[in-house]
Protein: NAD(P)-dependent dehydrogenase (Short-subunit alcohol dehydrogenase family)
Organism: Pseudoduganella flava
Amino acid sequence: MSQKTILVTGAGRGIGAAIALLAAQRGYRVCINYRADADAAHGLVERIAAAGGTACALQADVADEAQVEALFAAVDARYGRLDALVNNAGILARQTRVEDISAARINAIFATNVTGSFLCAREAVRRMSTRHGGSGGAIVNVSSRAAVLGSPNEYVDYAASKAALDALTIGLAKEVAGEGIRVNGVRPGLILTDMHASGGEPGRVARLAPSVPLGRGGEPAEVANAVMWLVSDEASYTTGTVIDVSGGR
Ligand code: NAD
């Protein structure tokens, strides 16, 4: 059987990088999408290659339709097939109250978290769907516990974007269920990545970690485990589901 190909968006660092590494360990050829962190993405490719895996780094802003189309064309050109997509790229803006949130900020968050994931899912369906001659596949959207938990004074716009992403997961799963494609999501809770440095207040992770029932923030690899289960054939009867990976939060 020929080797499967997975595309992970925003995979230069954090949760995306953990997913890329685990996918390579599971034998996938890994396409690592990045927007700006070229050094990190290429470093990851080298790490995977050094361990005997196959990977490439592909630059694209997932919020830009032309760049998304070029990204998927690059996957086609390099590996000739796509079996799994993980919509991991996501952004958070600095923590602030609702009165201070502008339309520009809302639109920027939705452009990456919702439109970007939608466009990548569309391109994946065009390639995976048996309706278009594809052989099926799996899509996993990286949502957030914020989508259903709510968090006063913390990223109401971000939470709304992730709730929209969950609706995409549920609706698209039903639309393509008869075409060999499963669509699922994960809702990470507090995960120990650099995202908090760019979006949250200093010390946010330390402040919130004790309130997590499991008593700590999660590791990116713990999210990757859930994502790769959803991608795998072990999840063959699971579609339209969003799994919490939040330490019980
Ligand atoms: P991170 O900031 O470390 O990584 C996100 C990556 O996405 C970065 O490499 C960034 O460059 C990339 N990216 C952002 N916008 C992009 C775009 N338009 N096109 C391409 N790449 C883009 O964050 P992380 O913590 O690893 O988060 C990964 C995902 O997990 C995000 O969707 C985030 O919302 C979600 N999440 C994270 C947490 C957490 O606590 N860290 C919790 C819940 C959900």
